[in-house]
Amino acid sequence: MSSTLLRHYIAGEFVSSERTFANVSPVDGRELGQVCEAGQAQVNAAVEAAKAAQSGPWGGFSAAQRADLLERIADGIERRFDDFVAAEVADTGRPVHQARSLDVARGVQNFRTFAGLVRQAGGEFFEMRTGDGSDVFSYTVRKPHGVVAIISPWNLPLLLLTWKVAPALACGNSVVVKPSEDTPSSATLLAEVMHEAGVPAGAFNLVHGFGPDSAGEFLTRNADVDAITFTGESRTGSSIMRAAAEGVRDVSFELGGKNAAVVFADCDFDAAVAGVLRSSFTNSGQVCLCSERVYVERPIFERFVAALKAGAEALKIGYPDEDGVNMGSLISHKHRDKVLGYFELAHQEGATVVTGGGVPRFGDERDNGAYVQPTIWTGLSDDARCMREEVFGPVCHVAPFDSDDEVVRRVNDSAYGLATALWTRNLGRAHRISRQFRVGMVWVNTWFLRDLRTPFGGARLSGLGREGGRHSLDFYSEITTVCVNP
Ligand SMILES: NC(=O)C1=CN([C@@H]2O[C@H](COP(=O)(O)OP(=O)(O)OC[C@H]3O[C@@H](n4cnc5c(N)ncnc54)[C@H](O)[C@@H]3O)[C@@H](O)[C@H]2O)C=CC1
Ligand SMILES: O=C(O)/C=C/C=C(\O)C(=O)O
Q1: Where is the Aldehyde dehydrogenase domain (predicted)?
Q2: 3-state secondary structure 29-47
């Protein structure tokens, strides 16, 4: 990073504020730098700039020009790939190889994908014969909403931010982005790339700060914001929805999950063990798609738990740039306290701790970091709080099951409904039961394999609406129908 003071980006300029807060490394607890905190006036200025951009040069861009701009932004991220990796790793403590292969690579891909999609996006066309014999035709045109507020979380900072910024700009909106207070760095770099790529002033704005009574709430309550897209905790989604109700603004929410993995006795055993290790422990369990409930068909239950335990104990926890490291820290000490609270609760609720359950000791500065051990529980009842609430850490509970109907019922017995992963060689069964899960996404013999054109989102507490492919174009557009009676 070029500076240790991270600033806002408003109306095409980097600006600071008097109030700042510390950006703290979750690897060793040291301060990485200071971040400006936007007050009400600065958030209002960002929204005003975004609104003004709609009637300036940005408002005149054609879809093809916007697509070209998105390609230039993707080129800009690629040119500064190593800076983005360093920013993401410093803020999150994740392994460097993950930031390279997932976070930053996907940031680039989001811009290229939505550039391609908006170039192809057509409207709809219908013909209808009326009672008097005339042929009426109707067609649709896509227009931007205007100003879109983007509130993003800390778990996959650049990936989730670009997943929203790219289609919002592709559709011609102006955006005001509020990244998580825990991960301000890659968003600031993205503002630098926007500046270098020649994004017209006001089309992309960035404000730093917190949620309640800070930049997040100021932004979502601003009446000139036309639509809000948010990824984060379900409770925060409810607060934002209350703010959006004023003025009946459009919302798109990707919220939490208490996802299940279902392992049938006929699965490819080694692939299923490797898959569940990934789905439970990737990014230290801090992906909304992670599996915290694992159901294993009884004939292979004991063998599966033993193999999963061996796999979890073989995961290497350490510095982000260490060779062979699989797991980094959690995002923050605050989040570690939350995860450790669930470790304690599991103990009180009668769990058997198969492995983990504590904090690794390194004997160096990482003991000031926010690490926890990968943890596996068995023996909890389906109504235990640890089975119903999202922990968002490297932990799963493994339970046996005996029939398809039973496992579908238990998987669906959740307030959440984001994703399920199935492991079986019987594709007939996979097709049959996939549709029975009350979730937005089902993976069969894989996990977190994403075609960016497919709908992404969840049911019930897991979200509202779908993004991805044309679903993103629909959310980020206002569609007008024109009916012509020739
Ligand atoms: N994708 C997911 O499912 C995620 C789930 N979480 C869960 O949420 C818990 C809390 O983590 P947080 O970072 O505090 O998540 P959060 O949902 O509170 O924060 C996400 C974003 O929303 C903003 N925000 C918070 N309250 C707001 C409000 N009232 N109005 C507008 N913006 C607001 C935050 O500043 C941040 O940018 C975690 O322990 C984890 O369990 C966190 C991040 C992502
Ligand atoms: O878009 C993806 O591929 C990943 C999405 C993950 C989340 O939404 C999350 O962890 O919050």
Answers
A1: 16-482
A2: CCEEEEEECCCHHHHHHHH
Residues paired with 293 in a beta bridge: 260, 397
- Asked if residues 376 and 309 have their Cβ atoms less than 8 Å apart, the reply is yes
Are residues 152 and 179 in contact, defined by beta-carbon separation less than 8 angstroms? yes
Consecutive H or E run containing 262: strand 259-263
Question: Does 254 participate in catalysis according to the annotation?
Answer: yes
Does 284 contact ligand 2 (Cβ within 6 A)? no
**What's the sign of the alpha-carbon dihedral 191, 192, 197, 198?**
positive
Residues 6+ apart with CB under 8 A from 316: 322, 324, 325, 326, 327
What does the domain layout of the chain look like in residue ranges?
5-255+462-484, 259-451
User: What architecture is the 5-255+462-484 domain classified under in CATH?
Assistant: 3-Layer(aba) Sandwich (3.40)
Ligand 1 binding site (Cβ under 6 Å of any ligand atom): 151-155, 178, 180-181, 210-212, 216-217, 220, 231-233, 236, 239-240, 255-256, 288, 335, 338, 390, 392
pLDDT digits (tens), the chain, 486 positions: 445 899 999 999 999 999 999 999 999 999 999 999 999 999 999 999 999 999 999 999 999 999 999 999 999 999 999 999 999 999 999 999 999 999 999 999 999 999 999 999 989 999 999 999 999 999 999 999 999 999 999 999 999 999 999 999 999 999 999 999 999 999 999 999 999 999 999 999 999 999 999 999 999 999 999 999 999 999 999 999 999 999 999 999 999 999 999 999 999 999 999 999 999 999 999 999 999 999 999 999 999 999 999 999 999 999 999 999 999 999 999 999 999 999 999 999 999 999 999 999 999 999 999 999 999 999 999 999 999 999 999 999 999 999 999 999 999 999 999 999 999 999 999 999 999 999 999 999 999 999 999 999 999 999 999 999 999 999 999 999 999 998
Distance CA 414, CA 233 (A): 16
Distance CA 392, CA 334 (A): 13
Residue closest via CA to ligand 1's atom 37 equals: 180
The class (CATH top level) of 259-451 is: alpha beta
Which of helix, strand or coil describes residue 441? strand
Q: What is the DSSP string of 383-434?
A: TSHHHHS---SSEEEEEEE--HHHHHHHHH-SSEESEEEEE-S-HHHHHHHH
pTM: 0.97
Within its chain, how far is the Cα of 116 from the centroid? 22
